[in-house]
């Protein structure tokens, strides 16, 4: 295992310390809890927005803490759900009295622990609600999930729910718009090489020198098909085809596009994929309102990418365009 | 060679098409020349700022085209200098009559071709000047360079020269501040795995399972020392020590810090490095004005990182803080 780390057991703590050291005026770390919040929380008269999950998906989620997105992010160990205690800590830190909204990726452990934390918070008189993001069209159930997995589309839920909360919306209104995003966002990914969780010390799966896996999850969970490495254009076509099958789009529809790198994919390759996705959408008469290309939801040093399409209406467009200032996402 | 591409010969063109497709309102591509400019160039009454070099270092340089940074970027083939013709095209596209300033990384081919383009432009009556960035303290001469190499510190030259030009400064004033940055910026990198240029098809060098190379260049040029993989803290210490030896800093000095990933390094590891760099600076009483952590100047899918320190004065701080809106860098 080749990694630039000090000790496999300390990667999460040290990463968060390094993050907060980089943004001392914007972020703070709740000692010993692996919870990163905005410097000044709770934000008065605003629904608090939190997210989180296992680490190893950086910049998700602590990189999205800041104005216009999250109030706090809770980091579990690598590929491991955070505990209810940690999540409760985050909920309490960000509640201004207006309630707290949780953006949860659909993994069994995450959903269970966020729900448990919400129950504990409610016992302390804090109003809590949530959305479960399940944008991955690859497989119905997986190693870690009942139902579809939540992957890169989650960042667009952060952005839009965060913008809504920033405008002073109620908890119910934040939930309504977050559910609208979940209803209209779909993703699908693929990988050409695995990642190595630091505490495990060996790759999470193996792929032959000329193999790729389509539909792979962000923890290396199996996908739909393992086959010979195709061209970027063929990969872009296959991923978008899967999305279209699940969420038909018509000429005149408008979408936001996210081409997400899984950690070790050169930006060059992501832009080559975007080129084809853009061509495919144009040929179908689908308008591209905005495109995001980069590492948004990674899987340590996995090489591969995912494509996300979010079908937009005027409300979602306005919220997507709203100001945001976080380490990993600025508007 | 495992890459998400269509054809090794088309990677640069298709990447730039994919980039411009992602930012159609901000960028445009000069057909067949691999030159990316702002959508509306020349910007009236502003010194035009251009940069460029071999491809494979994305987001450098086309990702830095936009308000507050570059007016155009010229892309050579992977790890290959752009031609004087291409560079001339960029100069002509961005000249508003106030002259054009070139930010050139110190590689023999780049310097020669940018100089040749400048001469051609001057024959057409365009005033051109340049700065050569040589921030890498690792080695004095290298495979591709006489004198020190230009690496990630180049991005800070883009930022600061770009901000100065945006304020309406003259060509001479832009040059003066760019030279001040070059005088005060130092970088040093290391790698734990090589990259594979698409047209070559095999890794540019090999490293043993437990080896790292200190001082490696962004094209895989040899560094100062190959040795057993150390901890993140040891690596951070060694890189900053090399920088301090070359540019002594004193208690009370203020710096900007850039922790740059070479392409395949998980963000987790970059933040762990930043944690230690930040501690080292604090112990020395050196103030950290701002920190940048991410993939700014990469080497395809090389794994490794570089540390850059820029010693600041009030002018540099103001220019660093000024508004910028480019695909890869926003303020």
UniProtKB/TrEMBL annotation, chains A, B:
It comes from the Bacteria. Keywords: Glycerol metabolism, Kinase, Transferase. SUPFAM superfamilies: DAK1/DegV-like. PROSITE patterns: DHAK (PS51481). Its EC number is 2.7.1.121. GO terms for cellular component: cytosol. It is an enzyme of class 2 (transferase). Residues 7-329 form the DhaK domain. Pathway: Polyol metabolism; glycerol degradation. GO terms for biological process: glycerol catabolic process. Pfam families: Dak1 (PF02733). GO terms for molecular function: glycerone kinase activity; phosphoenolpyruvate-glycerone phosphotransferase activity. InterPro entries: DhaK_1, DhaK_dom, Dihydroxyacetone_Kinase. Homodimer. The dihydroxyacetone kinase complex is composed of a homodimer of DhaM, a homodimer of DhaK and the subunit DhaL. Dihydroxyacetone binding subunit of the dihydroxyacetone kinase, which is responsible for the phosphoenolpyruvate (PEP)-dependent phosphorylation of dihydroxyacetone via a phosphoryl group transfer from DhaL-ATP. This is phosphoenolpyruvate--glycerone phosphotransferase.
